[in-house]
Amino acid sequence: MTAEPARLVVVGAGPGATGLLERLIASAPELLGDRPLQVTLVDPHPPGAGRVWRADQSPLLLMNSMAEDVTMFPDETVLVDGPLAPGPALHEWADETGTPGVEGRSFVSRHVQSGYLTWVFDQVRASAPANIRIETIADRAVRIEDGTGSAQRVHLAGRTEPLEADVVVLALGHLDAEPTGETARLAQYARAHDLTYVPPAYTADLDLAPLQPGQDVLVRGLGLAFVDLVVLLTEGRGGRFLEDGSYAPSGREPRLHVGSGRGVPYHAKTGYRLAGPPPKLPRFFGPEQIDALPDGPLEFRRDVWPLIAKEIGWGYYHELFAAHSERTTLPWDDFAAAYAAVPWYSDARVDLVASAVPAEEDRLDLDRLDRPFAETRFADDGAVQAALRHYIHADVVRRNDQAYSADLGAFLALLSIYGQLPRVLASGRLTGRSQVEELDGWWHGFFSFLASGPPAFRLEQLLALSRAGIVHFLGPDVRIDGAGGRFRACSPAVDTVVEADAVVEARLPKPTVVATADELLRDLMVTGQGVEETVDAVSTGRLRTSRDNRVIDRYGEEHPRRFAIGWYTSSRGAAAFARPRTNAAPFRMADQVARAVLSALGASVGSATPQC
């Protein structure tokens, strides 16, 4: 007699689903034994690469991480319950497969990354033991419901009959959203006045054809989505960046008037390695310090940020003292002991740094980094252009000068902090307002601004476009509205108003299960099978999930056979690839969910009726 196979359906087949599958296969012998398992992954996009990393997008679009900083395989530093299954990082795979043009510190095209992710998926699928069968279906899941007994039924757009499953995992990845709030108002204004409005979305999927050559276009956002937008509207339309640092336009480019909250682009990635030994992290923001936070309601900026800031400072000054001791006045051990003894927000810490680090440019000023033009008033538009060009040039120079390798120490501390934050969320002590406005809002933006920027040459290209008149900077705290049948943009930092007939929101939409464009997730919300997370009656926009990522319904009940992973859930997951040898959070979360899924499947198999 043989048992009926357990049936798992994973909705989504991108990198998140691949990571989960790898962890499932690793722990299956322990938790499922040799009992049969059928795994079906449903995604209209190619398995492994998924939508974001699919091969059929512009070859001009690059990753914003260096090849040596991207891996899909857990290494010996990863602390998980399941067994480890090491494999090559992106640059090692490229070397093994003879993929040209890829070195450890290169920023590869998304075509190359698509090849890596496809290969990883194939390797993971091939590693499955004989009792695990894996199939993929190129389709969209549009609805899920409880079937007979404990079965789950997953309805697909292209099939009449639903898939039957014992357990379902939603690994939906980046989600589109319908315009809401200000974006809905601006979209309505555009329709009423025959204007062009492009709401937040994944840049590679945008229809940019309505943006005409020479047309004035207002752009809000100076992050990675903006970098992609600029590439597609310049090089993507036949323009060329020349060796002398200039830009030769094709004549097909629109004129981009760009601004954001900070008014400046994300910091460039560093072009050097640490000159000293790596700092030991975490030091001031680890499990011990997080668990010691007050029991009462926590505010991120008030209670958590001082620990985070001190951790960033630790990484920064560790490298400064180790690699550039000639610019310091104290031995590291003396500074480190004194630094550990004082709070971040204290005159003692300020005085310590001032006495130990003579040059002001060598002192870490997080407030100035966060808002470089706070309270700045520009004389005129020309002053804005000059200030922004100077700022961007200085950033490029600093990020390519080994003398400033302390910035890389701060970057490594930021990565450590990112991996520790799930523990803060899991404690359930952050207030709802703080979670939405400070953690998801300010902190995520600050982290991305400092740590998730483009390669430096992209900012050099931005300077060339500015000099060529293709890009025009608006300044900080930019506001966009409609008046007189046109759009207009202004910054409180300068008396300049720019009018245009087109607006592009150069950013991804925030997580919003209420306004999601995903049909399956929308159905879960309408039917009450899923619910938006609220904390202290404050909505976070995310799908509510339990600590082990089970979907929670409108009655607060955890579904025993439905799981969800990703940035759109209250568990959040990771919005970036894992970095080798960092005990990366994506591996830890994938392992936790995989083992919970296997336990649920094991119960299903155990109750199955043997077949003769």
Automatic annotation (TrEMBL):
Source species, domain of life: Bacteria
A Pfam family this chain is assigned to: NAD_binding_9
Occurrences of domain FAD-dependent urate hydroxylase HpyO/Asp monooxygenase CreE-like FAD/NAD(P)-binding (ranges): 9-174
The name this protein goes by in its record: FAD-NAD(P)-binding
